[in-house]
Amino acid sequence: MLAVLLLPGALRAFLPALLGRSALAMGGLALLLAVQDSTGSYTQAGFATAVFGIANVLAAPWRARAVDRFGQRVALNTMASGQASGFIALALITASESASDISLLLLSAVVGLTAPPLGAAMRMVWASLTTAGDQRTKAFSLDAVCEELLFVAGPVIITAVIVTSSPSTGLWVTAAAVSLGTAAMTSSASSRALRGTGGSAAQGDRPLRQPGFARVLVVLLGVGGVLGVAEIAAPATAAEHDAVAASGWLLAAFAGGSALGGFLYGHLNLRSGIGKRLFALCVSMGLAAVFVSQLDTLGLFAAGLALIGLFLAPSLITGYLIADTIVPETSRTEASTWINTSVNLGASLASAAAGFVIDRSGAWLALLLVGAIALALASAVPFARLREIQSPADHAPDRCEQS
User: Fold this and answer.
1) CA nearest 42: which of 30, 52, 54, 33?
2) Which of 3, 270, 262 is nearest to 141 (CA)?
3) What's the rounded Cα separation, in Å, for the pair 258 and 307?
4) What is the pLDDT of residue 83?
5) Are 226 and 374 a contacting pair, CB within 8 Å?
6) DSSP 3-state of 188
7) How many other CB atoms sit within 10 Å of the CB of residue 239?
8) What is the distance between the terminal CA atoms of the chain, rounded to a whole angstrom?
9) In angstroms, how far is CA 361 from the centroid of its own chain?
10) Residues 304, 295: contact at Cβ < 8 Å?
11) Phi-psi label, residue 158: left if phi above 0, alpha if psi -120 to 50, beta otherwise
12) What average pLDDT score do residues 283-290 get?
């Protein structure tokens, strides 16, 4: 899997892209702690974080569409400048302790709306550097594993920065990460080559207009649902066992399982159709959630969360591969972003419902229900459509293995 890093131009784009993407891993926590420190209110901090997250999700397809249209260098740097400016403004007003509630919410919306889609953009770089099939699967798998590790390390790093300095410093660091990472990535030859269409993509090229694509998004809603419930069930279960301090370890087990799953997925030379893979992964994730709902000791629950996580990154990778296959090249950044949007929407809806269920019946029922929902949604996989469009090149030998 690491062999894809030896492709000409790969490391030059990938490493700074990871730096830029770390801003998303750090930004939510930095924002939460800075607003709470400034206002003394976790309620206000929670509202600001929610506005940031909602704005990010809602604007994601349009940001990606801008990248497809104007090219990576222009679109990504414009967005990164906007987000960095928003983080800096938040740092200044939270440090001065003179911020109004409205200004905090407005700036939180700004940093959410302008978040550059560096993950989707990097996957387009990978697609331009690799051949379809095993090599591209390895590249997307490496990308997904590193992204999972970012979301493990990011909160730890930004917490250390804030503890040793101040919450506003955390916002400055986040602003620096997104601006420097984006500028360095888009100055690479492989990113500069993706100049965009120069105009609006044809309506028929839009991802949601492609037969079968919306059904893929429906399937991934279930994946997101399991993700959202797992992230709520972990601290709830730790609290039920009077071990609140174990919450972080439970979430780390879940993220670690996902990273391991992505790593293994990238090393397997899978020959089954991409539709069958998506179905098998989503069914497995649903069954794992149902199984884990019956575990009642903390140690077994941690292992169960790792098992659920094992199918998360591979499901996302398969979604990205489908987007790369089913959508015309002029709209692939947008298509890749829709994959994330579907998973994030499923996670958000499930998180809200999970809190209600957990308060009344416990985490086990929330996991059981979301597992059953994921199993039901897996039936939406468009097998016939994916068999029809899957290129024979998807089964070609890996160029890295031939060299």
Assistant:
1) 33
2) 262
3) 8
4) 97
5) yes
6) coil
7) 14
8) 14
9) 30
10) yes
11) alpha
12) 97
pTM of the shown model: 0.79
- Cβ neighbours of residue 165 closer than 8 Å, sequence gap 6 or more: none
Q: What six digits make up the tokens of 311?
A: 């199918």
Q: What is the DSSP letter of 5?
A: G
pLDDT class for 133, splitting at 50, 70, 90? confident
Instruction: Indicate the length of the chain as a whole number.
Output: 403
Per-residue confidence (pLDDT) for residue 302, from 0 to 100: 93
Distance CA 118, CA 333 (A): 10
Q: State the residue for tokens 């730096």.
A: 19
Q: Residue written as tokens 């993706």?
A: 194
Helix (H, G, I), strand (E, B) or coil at 165: coil
Q: Which one is predicted more confidently, 249 or 86?
A: 86
> What's the CA gap between 390 and 47, in Å, rounded?
44
Say what angle helices 312-326 and 332-361 make with each other, to 10 degrees.
150
Q: Which two tokens stand for residue 251?
A: 């979430």
* Residue that is written with structure tokens 């098998």 in the block: 280
| pLDDT at residue number 359 | 85
Locate 272 and state its tokens. 């089954």
DSSP 8-state symbol, 196: -
- Residue 7 CB: number of other CB atoms within 10 A? 17
Q: Are 381 and 216 in contact (CB under 8 A)?
A: yes
State both tokens at 183.
């500028």
